[in-house]
Specification:
By secondary structure, the protein is mainly α. The chain has ten helices and no strands.
């Protein structure tokens, strides 16, 4: 096991960033209600992503000790329990929950951005056509990721079947996935299947990063045509481009998973990715704080509440 980051350190980082996401989300909701007098659909989407993040953090915290034990078994620091031990099934269940929640958090954040952009640029027919194309692509890729997760090694009904603990040693994605063995032929541990699974991790990354870039590109075209000072355009472009951080972290996590797959390394990047995604989704509403006039108006409305 890689001891570079302790379980306590991972939990501290995960919940600290989750707390930051909660605080910024509360600020986001406050700004929206004060400036608009009501909430919009993107607020509901953001609330969903925040609740999913909290659930994911809880699942990570529950699963970290299981991952540590698997790492100890793989490194022969602990004698493997018998295959009838419920520990293995619990481990696989937690890995499945974490994997699905990761996708749900990331794609609900994409939905939040898409809905927010629709509210901002609803007057442009060209933008609306591009928006619908992006929505269709994001929706389709979400279900591709969910479907491929449930059928990673065969039928979804066989997700928790396995024959030997050495299968866990073969997983390059211990922090947020699993490799069960569903058939006596050990299909999930065959060289061909392992190559296919590694390819699956790569296209998961490609789908996530690709849709991130598409979602991020949507407002940039519109910002370019806005009648704003260059400094304001640059500030808005930077604000809307912060989502690139999520794409970069996803690439780093995938590289870590495929190259070393150490528990602490993958868990670290996974924790960073989902929390940063929700944090970044909170920030566009803070654009009213960029200008002095915006800050004055916000403070004035707050004082009237």
């Amino acid at each position: 096991m890689d001891n570079s980051v302790s379980v306590e350190g991972l939990n501290a980082l995960l919940w600290t960033l989750t707390a930051v996401a909660i605080v910024l989300s509360v600020g986001r909701f406050t700004i929206r209600y004060v400036t608009a007098g009501r909430f919009h659909l993107d607020d509901a989407s953001h609330l969903l992503s925040l609740l999913l993040l909290i659930g994911l953090a809880a699942a990570y915290t529950t699963g970290f000790p299981y991952s540590v034990r698997i790492a100890r078994i793989n490194s022969e620091q602990e004698v493997p329990p018998p295959l009838t031990d419920p520990f293995y099934r619990k481990y696989l269940q937690l890995r499945l929950v974490v994997t699905l929640l990761v996708f749900m958090v990331l794609w609900s954040v994409k939905a939040t951005f898409l809905i927010f952009y629709r509210l901002l640029f609803d007057v442009s027919r060209t933008f609306i056509r591009m928006w619908w194309a992006a929505v269709a692509l994001v929706f389709a890729t979400f279900w591709v990721c969910i479907g491929s997760t449930l059928t990673l090694c065969g039928s979804a009904s066989d997700l928790y079947n396995f024959r030997k603990p050495s299968l866990f040693q073969l997983s390059p994605f211990q922090s947020s996935s699993f490799i069960p063995n569903s058939h006596p032929s050990e299909i999930c541990s065959s060289p061909e299947k392992l190559l296919a699974i590694r390819a699956t991790y790569k296209y998961w990354c490609a789908l996530n990063v690709g849709t991130d870039l598409i979602v991020l590109a949507l407002p940039l075209v519109m910002i370019y045509n806005l009648q704003l000072r260059p400094t304001q355009k640059a500030t808005l472009t930077l604000l809307f481009s912060l989502g690139l951080l999520v794409a970069i972290v996803d690439i780093l996590r995938t590289v870590e998973s495929l190259q070393s797959g150490t528990f602490s390394g993958v868990a670290l990047w996974s924790s960073l990715e989902v929390t940063i995604a929700v944090i970044v989704a909170s920030l566009p509403l803070y654009r009213v704080l960029i200008t002095r006039k915006g800050r004055r108006n916000l403070l004035s409305r707050l004082s009237m509440e």
